[in-house]
Amino acid sequence: MAKKLRLVSRGKERLPVPTWVIARTMGRVRITPKRRRWWRTKIRA
Predict the structure, then answer these.
(1) Which of 13, 17, 21, 38 makes a 20 to 30 Å CA pair with 29?
(2) Cβ 32 vs Cβ 21: under 8 Å
(3) At 1, is the pLDDT very low, low, confident or very high (cuts 50, 70, 90)?
(4) What dihedral do alpha carbons 21, 7, 38, 22 form, nearest 10°?
(5) What pLDDT is recorded for position 27?
């Protein structure tokens, strides 16, 4: 169960930033700071 929860939380990192966040920050925040590439960092699940 814990492994699945970790995988789900890592999957949510790929979601785009909401439009209202981009509008509120005047376009400074466009990508999620915690975004991860599959070859760069491995998931310690």
Answers:
(1) 38
(2) no
(3) very high
(4) 0
(5) 94
Please give the single-letter amino acid code of residue 10. Answer: R
Domain boundaries in the chain?
A: 1-35
Please give the Cα distance from 10 to 4 (Å, whole number).
10
- On whether the CB atoms of residues 2 and 44 are closer than 8 A, the answer is no
pLDDT tens-digit series, residues 4-31: 999 998 988 889 999 999 999 999 999 8
**AA identity, residue 22:** I
- Give the residue from 39, 31, 38, 40 showing the smallest Cα distance to 7: 38
Say which residue the tokens 């590439």 belong to.
37
